[in-house]
Structure formats: structure tokens, C-alpha cells
Description:
The protein is α/β, with parallel strands linked by helices. The chain contains 8 helices and 18 strands. β12 and β13 form a beta hairpin.
Amino acid sequence: MPGLPRLRDAYDVVVIGGGHAGLQAGLKAALLGYSAAIIDRGPKYSRSYYAPRMDNIPGFPNGISGHKLLDEQIAAVRASDGVDYFTPARAGAVARTEAGYAVTFDWLKQSHVARGRVLILAQGVVDRIPEVRGEIDRIFPWANMALVDFCILCDGHELIGKSVAVIGDDAFAARTALDVQHFRPSSVALLTHGRPLLATEAEADRATLSAALREHGIAVTELEMVDFDEIREKRFGVQFADGSHQSFDRGFSALGWYDMHPAFPRALGCRFDPEGYVVTDEDCRAIADASGEPIPGLYCVGDQRRGWNQIPEAWASAERAVIHAYAEYL
């Protein structure tokens, strides 16, 4: 079929994941004269796909949507003869081989194997979405209108002077509510969605965080959320199980990650840190759990490794991985 890539017998670099980090890794490999395959489920699986506007992207003083930025990166990849971009495709298995790595993936209703000397994991992470009445999509319209945020480093600057509802019940949520104070909101509330605040934390941590919340005047509501409203007023309205209602300028989900995609790095013997990120060295080489040494030819970039979960850092990690492979491995 015209316009579709043809799978080569082997590549220099195979990338699993087509978010900002994965796309940059594939493009950089091609710019350095290597062949690359990108296996991507599709742009809609990227965390930034639904971001209405991002202000921290160099070269876009008026901001840019995550969707548009991904489109620009995909266009650059498609314009490169050195990259084969397989999408929508789903990687199903990875394995070490004598020549490097083999990635089995489904594409066009058939199973294929991409073989590469180097493998770059760029699968990202998936935000945990508040489940309301058994559904996660009830909050999507507010998120799509930038009335609910997920990243304080991306969107904290927009909370100045606003009333903010932070959703979550654990230490991460409590610390996020405290961190929001840095951006001088008019008020901050913590909504635990029917769960006891800090119930899973150690007693000493629970006492310290509870005292900090009280000191900063952060209200806590432990009622279950049953619906959202006020989207026409461009506000984040929350309806609770007892019939009460609260209205905020912005919501902020602090529920952590639903999926950190550990299956492939675990199958390849990678080490994980206590929070579930893949451990790498400064060049993004994946570290073996057994030996503590870098695994030859295996890299992990973007949000899947420990970092600040920012797009410029995703790009930087992709650059570091490919440049290291160019200079020291390939």
C-alpha cells in the first residue's frame, strides 16, 4: 500500500513508543545515519495528546497543544528516509538475540518482528484517572478544556489567584496540595474521593502531613465524588454523594500512575527504583538488576525512567541515548 513503511530485515535502532521521546529517538538515529524503526500504538496514547496548551516548549512563545506538537514530530519522522514508523502497532514481546534485540509487534492485523542492534524503550507512563460512578471518562471534558491539570511543573503557573481542588488521598496528593501553594492560589482543597486521608501512610508521616495541611489552610473533603459540572462556566464543579456541591476554578489530579509499563524492562532484566521507574545511568543506559551494570544496547528514555516528566527532558534523554549509542556502541 502506498505510504506504508516496509519492514526491513534489521535495523540499527528499534524504538518502542511513539511519544515525544520515542519520536525524537528515531529521528535522531536517522540524522546520525542509522536506520530506525518506531513501533507506536498511536499519538492518542501519549500523555500530552490531550493537553490543550503547553507553555514550556522552546520555540512556541504562545504555547502549543500536545496534539499539534506530536503532529509536527510525526511529520519530521515521516519525512526521513531513515525511519520506518509503524502505527497503529502494538509491541507484544521483546527478547535479547546474538545480534541485539527482537521486538514482536502486531501491525495491519499481522505479527511482525523488528530486529535491531539497539533497543530504546520509550513507552512512557499512564496517569491514573479519577473513577467516578465506575467510569474514568467523566472528567475528560474538564481535562480537555484545561480545567483539570495533571502536572504541576507544566501547569502550576496557571494557578495563580485561582481556587484549586487537588484530587487524591495519599502522601503524594497531600504534598501536591502543599506544592500548589507555591503558585499563590486563592485557596486549595484536597478531595479524597471517599477515602480516609493518609490512611495508607505511616503514623509519623500522617501526623506531619496533616499538620502541614492545617497550617496552610488546606481544606479536606472525604466525601465521594459522584459527578462534575459547571463546564459551561469554565469552572470545575464537583457533586458529592451527600448531595453537597463545591466549585473551583481548577482541578488537579494527584493520583499518580496507572501504568508504568514494566513488562518489557522486567523481561530484559532491568532494575527499577522504589517508585517503579526504570533505573538508568546518565546516558539513559538501562541498568541490569542482577549486576548493577548497563545492559549492552538497551536504553530507556522519557517518562519511563526517573526524571521530571517534561517534554524537553524527554527530548534530551532521547538525544543522550542515541548519541551514546552512536559514540560508544554502534
